């Protein structure tokens, strides 16, 4: 069976400025209540038609995400427990994962079938 989705490239986007070493943020009461409500985001864009180099289409998106992460470094942090066994987010400049993929068919076809 042919692949429906082909991964073109995988990249890690990091902040344009490093985070203060060892910086951590304790989770608030609201954070702890929202544990099971996290956000996964998929952005769909129409094909530009002509073949491109891997990562060429997502270049601007990567650049703007890197600038955004500079203002919100907590997004790139990792969950850890502190010495009191409480959850916290430790900032480590690990970045966020970004994938560029190509799918067979069109977004309109997919929405008709599954939307």
Secondary structure elements and their pairing?
Layout: E1 5-13, E2 24-26, H1 29-33, H2 59-71, E3 78-81, E4 87-90, E5 96-103, H3 107-114
Antiparallel strand pairs: 1-5, 2-4, 3-4
Give a structural overview:
This protein has helices at residues 29-33, 59-71, 107-114; strands at 5-13, 24-26, 78-81, 87-90, 96-103. The strands form two sheets. It has a three-stranded antiparallel beta sheet with strand order 2-4-3, with no helix packed on it. The mean pLDDT is 82. It has a single domain, classed as 2-Layer Sandwich (Chloramphenicol Acetyltransferase), CATH 3.30.559.10. The two termini are 24 Å apart. It is globular, with a radius of gyration of 18 Å. The protein is built from three helices and five strands, in the order E-E-H-H-E-E-E-H. A hairpin with a 5-residue loop joins strand 3 and strand 4 (87-90). Helix content is 23%, strand content 24%. By secondary structure, the protein is α+β, with helices and mostly antiparallel strands.
């Amino acid at each position: 069976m042919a692949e429906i989705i082909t991964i073109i490239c995988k990249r890690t986007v990091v902040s344009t400025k490093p985070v203060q070493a060892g910086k951590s943020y304790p989770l608030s009461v609201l954070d702890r209540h929202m544990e099971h409500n996290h956000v996964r985001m998929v952005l769909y864009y129409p094909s530009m038609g002509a073949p491109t180099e891997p990562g060429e289409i997502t270049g601007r998106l990567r650049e703007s995400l890197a600038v955004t992460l500079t203002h919100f470094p907590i997004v790139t942090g990792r969950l850890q427990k502190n010495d009191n066994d409480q959850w916290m987010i430790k900032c480590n400049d690990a970045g966020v994962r970004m994938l560029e993929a190509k799918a067979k068919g069109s977004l309109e076809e997919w929405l008709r079938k599954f939307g």
